[in-house]
Automatic annotation (TrEMBL):
This is Calcium-binding protein. PROSITE patterns: HEMOLYSIN_CALCIUM. One of its GO terms (molecular function) is calcium ion binding. The keyword Secreted applies. Keywords: Secreted. It is found in: Secreted. Gene3D superfamilies: Serralysin-like metalloprotease, C-terminal. It holds the Pfam family HemolysinCabind. The keyword Secreted applies. One of its GO terms (cellular component) is extracellular region.
Amino acid sequence: MSPATDSDSGGEKMAVITGDATDNVLNGTAAADQIYGLNGNDTLTGGNGIDLLDGGDGDDSLYGGNQNDTLNGGNGIDTAVFEKPIGRYRITYNNGVITVDAQSGYEDVDTLTGMEKLKFNGLVYDFTGWTGGPLPEPTMPAGTVYGTEGHETLTGTGGVDYLHGLGGDDVMIGGAGGDILVGGSGNDTASYAGSSAGVTVSLETGLGFYGDAANDVLHGFENLQGSSFNDTLTGNGGDNIFISSGGVDDITGGAGVDWVDYSDIVKPAGMTGMFFQRGTPTNIASYFYNASINPFKDTLRQVEGVRGSAYDDVYMNILTSDDMFEGGAGADIFDGRGGNDTLVYTHSAAGVNVNLATGAASGGDATGDQFTGSYVWRGTTRNLAGATNLSGSEHADTLTGSSVANVLRGADGDDTLRGDGGNDTLDGGAGVDIAVYALSLNNYTISYNSGAITVAANIGTEGTDTLTGIEKLLFANGTLDLTEWTGGPLPPLLGPNDIMGSSGDNVLTGTAAGQSIYGMAGNDSISGAGGNDVLTGGDGSDTYLVARGDGVDDIVQAGITDAAGTTDAVLFGSGVSYDQLWFRQVGNDLRIDVIGESASSVLLKSWYTDSTRRVDSIQTTDGSHSLSAANVQALVDAMATYTQPGTGDFTLSPQLASDLAPVFATTWA
């Protein structure tokens, strides 16, 4: 090694320190040093000056020390070392350069190039390929307890613990000791509910202080649960949930859509429920109440939603900001005072029925809730301004809007949504969801664009609604099933007993009530199964099943839209032979009767006016006989000269059988 010195502007000597081909340990001075590792796996330490550290070849470790240092890793897998936890630094990327700003303290601002790894307070982070955005997770040391891809709770031992949730929505309880907690993927929660003192925790910096949070480092968490003491909790740029365990807390959500959850709170004796009041655009105060006592008061900053307790809660917004309130169990009052407010029922144990126009609320957590009319708050009568939007539960909900523009979200479950007046947004979520409209279908214009359906009322006050996640539209004169509709001609309007298949291969069976059955695309098997039905196969190769006593069914073929190469058939079931079928023309249609029966017939519509609407064959299960469409007319002509056997005559007379035998022989295969 060859150290050299020169004078810097302060009169101190600047050291230029150069290593060699071996593994060197090179330490700088109090001056502004230049340290070059050259070859080998070197350890370079800058000291107190404004230093330049260059690792050269090999896998090097570089620590700048005090002042604003420049660290160049060179070739190899190189590591920049910093003393404090990663949350104490602001790390940015620009055009191949990583900048690490200590923000406070003596390490100041370091500029890094050629660095694959950064080491903070003993934890190594792989920054290979990082170009900004979310910081990488640390490389966990030996002894780390890992979760699975499922949902679990990981609990520390009381000492220094290393916990990593991997996948799933995990809860991590580090306990006492300076813990390293990594949530992994999923929606993860760091819990300090068992702390013996208040905690200060920030998801933005990933650092914890005081109580069980002292010296904790957190990565990849979306949610925080505080202690039963006085906590200071801070979110990050994502959507965070803060779970209150009691105490007087100061909670800051930050960017994103953030919630504070009081559902686990136990009310003190003599209290009625919780009271929430938004006093400024960014602040909400919350506390328990009765006639005059407020035992504790939380301050919620930059929080968009509040989930109340299991008691009778009151949410009061003296401004006109946009709030979200989930009252939970109990008879809750929402005093939104205007604004674009949302009532939420996500955690209800049963479906809810809520009407924003009438104020009616029943079922699950909605039971007893009030958001219209007036109420008395500590001797003063207040008028409620109502809410604008609704978000349902995981069950089957009925959500109804008002005369203004509403947003109705069904979430999970088979929901029924009705926007009523105004230009509404309806999101069914998971399940088979229905949007309800007051008038007949012909009074609306329906269109599709990029996954959203628009329903515009041509008359009346219902406005123009935007629909996502909605499978069916219920009108005054029937139902549209839009499960697979992506524009173009609308599917058929269904009555209450009607059935419609999908684009796949369906087996569709009716009831004795009689209905219309639509196979749509795919190779379908369709049976009316009693009653007078209308059977429409749609595209694909379809089979219409007919049995004795099935009623008088109409069969409607797809016509020219049916793809080339498809084959459609009418199949008569067990107990019906080919010589028990009577063929005749009725207007433009072909009628086939099962002789002897009063109600066992099919009418093949438009047989004589459109050849594309003909089935390819008539078949029988008994004897496996088949009649092609081309041979049908020969039977119609032959039978036209005879009288069809009457009800109760289940076989042809000997004479009629003899007369028709030649045509049977040349038509049926």
